[in-house]
Write a structure and sequence with these properties.
The protein contains 7 helices and no strands. Helix 2 packs antiparallel against helix 5, helix 5 runs antiparallel to helix 6 and helix 5 runs parallel beside helix 7. It starts with a helix and ends with a helix.
Length: about 210
């Protein structure tokens, strides 16, 4: 019998199982970002539909958590975890909208930004894989390892963000391109930040119920 089986009641166990669904929705949305091409064509409709699907799952889980099926000592943390997971999908959607809004006129800069976006999607995919494994694990040692990997991936994204920001501050770029790259850098980072926040909250829940 694993940690989850020992410490959670039926309602809590169902919530923890269903929370994984949000991370899986995020993975699908993230895959749509990988389809970006040189003209910034991206299926924003598909990403929006997935964002709405995540919202519906969050509404369902929030009602389940608030209905009294969850122990009071983890109720607020579980609500926060659900919101953090939803924020991952929201951040992917926000990035997709930003990508679609503007085409960088300079082909060299456009290629650089596209490369960094693709790299970000790979980091996000890795972080979501770890988050899913983390939330399906019943071993605290493994959960800590998954969380550490997510932290490392978020740190790599920080480097990408800093590289983009350094570029626009050190080089002559037009006003629209400057703002666009600034937004892209921060929105890419938001996704990994939300992955890390979700991992931290899940970790906090698991530590509080096992110590």
């Amino acid at each position: 019998m694993g940690i989850l089986d020992r410490v959670f009641n039926g309602g809590e166990y169902r919530v923890m199982e269903e929370i994984v669904v949000i991370a899986e929705i995020a993975k699908k949305a993230n895959m749509e970002l990988r389809n970006i091409n040189d003209s910034n064509v991206i299926s924003i409709e598909k990403v929006k539909a997935l964002e709405q699907e995540s919202d519906e799952k969050v509404f369902q889980l929030s009602n389940m958590i608030s209905s009294g099926a969850i122990s009071p000592n983890v109720l607020s943390d579980m609500l926060a975890l659900v919101e953090n997971e939803d924020s991952i999908v929201d951040s992917i959607f926000n990035l997709a909208r930003e990508i679609k809004r503007y085409k960088v006129p300079n082909s060299k800069i456009a290629a650089m930004v596209k490369k960094d976006i693709i790299t970000t999607t790979r980091l996000v995919d890795g972080a979501l894989d770890e988050l899913v494994k983390m939330e399906r694990s019943s071993d605290l040692v493994s959960i800590k390892k998954y969380r550490k990997t997510i932290e490392k991936l978020e740190s790599e994204e920080d480097d990408i963000k800093d590289g983009l920001l350094d570029y626009i501050y050190k080089n002559e770029v037009d006003f629209k391109t400057f703002n666009y790259i600034n937004e892209i850098a921060h929105k890419c980072d938001d996704i990994l930040d939300n992955c890390e926040d979700s991992a931290d909250m899940f970790m906090s829940i698991m530590v509080s119920i096992t110590t």
